[in-house]
Design brief:
There is one protein chain. With about 90 residues, the protein is mainly α. It has one domain. About 75% of the residues lie in helices and about 0% in strands. The chain contains 4 helices and no strands. The protein starts with a helix and ends with a helix.
């Protein structure tokens, strides 16, 4: 498992996002064993954490650039869930 977490930290953002999308597709297919599902889920959680950290870092960089240019930042947390996902939380 440590190797997967290390991989998630090394891949470029887009590659990590694609890997997460592939994992979700595998999980949704229902064609893998319980053990494989648990491993994929665990890897997916690690990828989500890494991607969220990268998005937070990017937001901080954008805020810093805007502040340096004398502008005001209207910092809002980035929400990576789309409207369909938000409806599922209700």
């Amino acid at each position: 498992m440590a190797d997967r977490q290390e991989d998630a930290q090394v891949f470029p953002f887009e590659d990590s996002l694609k890997q997460l999308e592939d994992l979700v597709e595998r999980l949704e297919s229902g064609e893998i064993s319980l053990e494989e599902s648990l491993q994929d889920f665990e890897q997916g959680v690690a990828l989500v954490r890494t991607l969220r950290e990268r998005l937070d870092q990017a937001q901080q960089r954008v805020d810093k650039i805007v502040e340096q240019e004398g502008g005001e930042t209207a910092s809002q947390s980035m929400d990576i869930m789309d409207d369909d996902d938000k409806d599922m939380d209700k």
